[in-house]
């Protein structure tokens, strides 16, 4: 399914709150924060000229977040950043002076963190980031996981010392239960989705994602003309689209939001013109995108700066995982999890449909930017789908890079 943005807010300026969250000054602050993270390194921006020639576009660049901060997902940038910011803010309030990120490992920051419990619901990746951030500063973490989260992903969260709380139902059920229990116990919810009255913390999570955009734009030889980014509740799509709208103004790229057809909450929200909850049906293989209700902040941003919304099917996502693992020509092999390459799946579907291709003005000079949002965060599932282990594909990528 494909839909051009026809909402009344389309092309209006960003809400001032969102412009502040995703602006250049905020993004610079995120990068300064990362400089104090011991295992931080910029993730690679990979050129895919073979695939670009095959699809009939000028260039394709993919930011590979499978290497981010040891967590294998772009979400490493969001949850942990929000936790650290909240702890620094609380320490500032208690000590009566501004506490800088350079004091992250000080005793007064740790003493503050030890009195705090952060909580969230997760499909896997966000919970891991929140748990990592809590461990880093010495706070307690309680992570709510729904029945669709694999045991391997749960174990990856628990390794950071988080308490795991199981919830029957969907991701959205776990969000509601996390909010209810956190309120009862006085815990701080660090959610990557927002609802009425709860915006600041999801805004900090999204702010963390701007780092990957800054890194990518510095590395790209030219500004992209088109950006395809996958969406669950919409946080990563809104962060990329919003920051690029601020950075480029009227020259911003054409931005396309890509949803799983089985959990198309942003597509249906765009069609309705207001936030909607879609029915829960058969689960999608794109597990990290299996969300049935959009983030209100994300929709407020995307209603203004997304140009189109589309969906992809299960086979599209699986095909892209295999295609990136066994690339065209001399392109590097890329380990992309079930949700990682969905933006590329959207691009392939778009160029394969003459009407969509024309509507988006895709042609031989188009410069495409994509984000591989996750590596193999469930290695067993990855091997089952691709037929190779993540390690085997990564070895192939290293061999190609050395040639």
Write structural notes for this entry:
The chain has 403 residues and is α/β, with parallel strands linked by helices. It has 2 domains: 2-73 and 202-402, Rossmann fold; 79-191, 3-Layer(aba) Sandwich (Rossmann fold), CATH 3.40.50. Helices cover 46% and strands 14% of the residues. It has 17 helices and 11 strands. A 7-stranded mixed sheet has the order 1-10-9-8-11-3-2, with helices on both faces. Helix 10 (235-248) links the parallel strand 8 and strand 9. Helix 2 (24-34) crosses helix 9, helix 6 packs parallel to helix 7 and helix 10 packs across helix 12 (296-305). The longest helix has 20 residues, at 200-219.
Please give the radius of gyration in angstroms: 20 Å
Q: Which sequence of SSEs, written as H and E, runs from N to C? A: EHHEHEHHEHEHEHEHEHEHHEHHHEHH
Percentage of residues assigned to helices: 40-55%
Strand order of the largest sheet: 1-10-9-8-11-3-2
User: What would the average pLDDT be, to the nearest integer?
Assistant: 95
Using the 3D structure, state the CATH architecture of the largest domain.
3-Layer(aba) Sandwich
Structural class: alpha/beta
Q: In a nutshell, what does this entry contain?
A:
The chain is 46% helix and 14% strand.
Distinctive features:
14% strand, 2 domains, Rossmann fold, alpha/beta, TrpB-like_PALP_sf, DiNH2opropionate_NH3_lyase, single chain, TrpB-like_PALP
């Amino acid at each position: 399914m494909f839909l051009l943005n026809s909402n009344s807010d389309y092309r209006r300026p960003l809400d001032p709150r969102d412009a502040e969250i995703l602006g250049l000054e905020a993004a610079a602050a995120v990068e300064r924060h990362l400089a104090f993270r011991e295992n931080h390194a910029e993730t690679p921006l990979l050129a895919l000229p073979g695939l670009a020639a095959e699809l009939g576009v000028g260039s394709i660049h993919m930011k590979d977040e499978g290497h981010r901060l040891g967590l294998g997902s772009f979400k490493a940038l969001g949850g942990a950043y929000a936790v650290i910011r909240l702890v620094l803010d609380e320490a500032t309030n208690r000590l009566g002076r501004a506490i800088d990120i350079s004091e992250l490992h000080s005793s007064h920051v740790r003493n503050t963190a030890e009195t705090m419990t952060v909580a969230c619901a997760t499909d896997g990746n966000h919970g891991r980031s929140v748990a990592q951030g809590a461990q880093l500063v010495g706070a307690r973490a309680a992570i709510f996981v729904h029945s669709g989260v694999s045991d391997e992903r749960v174990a990856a969260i628990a390794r950071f010392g988080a308490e795991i709380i199981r919830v029957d139902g969907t991701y959205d059920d776990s969000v509601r239960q996390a909010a209810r229990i956190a309120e009862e116990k006085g815990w701080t919810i660090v959610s990557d989705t927002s609802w009425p009255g709860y915006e600041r913390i999801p805004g900090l999570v999204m702010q963390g994602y701007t780092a990957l955009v800054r890194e990518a734009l510095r590395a790209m030889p030219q500004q992209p003309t088109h950006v395809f980014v996958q969406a669950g509740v919409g946080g990563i799509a809104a962060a990329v689209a919003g920051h690029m709208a601020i950075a480029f103004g009227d020259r911003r790229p054409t931005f396309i939001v890509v949803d799983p057809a089985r959990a198309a909450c942003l597509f249906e929200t765009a069609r309705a013109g207001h936030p909607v909850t879609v029915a829960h049906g058969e689960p999608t293989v794109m597990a990290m995108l299996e969300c049935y209700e959009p983030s209100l902040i994300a929709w407020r941003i995307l209603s203004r700066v997304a140009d189109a919304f589309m969906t992809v099917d299960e086979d599209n996502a699986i095909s892209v995982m295999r295609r990136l693992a066994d690339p065209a020509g001399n392109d590097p092999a890329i380990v992309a999890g079930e949700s990682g390459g969905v933006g590329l799946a959207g691009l392939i579907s778009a160029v394969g449909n003459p009407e969509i291709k024309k509507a988006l003005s895709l042609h031989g000079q188009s410069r495409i930017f994509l984000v591989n949002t996750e590596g193999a965060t469930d290695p067993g599932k990855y091997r089952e789908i691709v037929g190779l282990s993540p390690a085997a594909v990564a070895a192939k990528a290293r061999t190609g890079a050395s040639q």
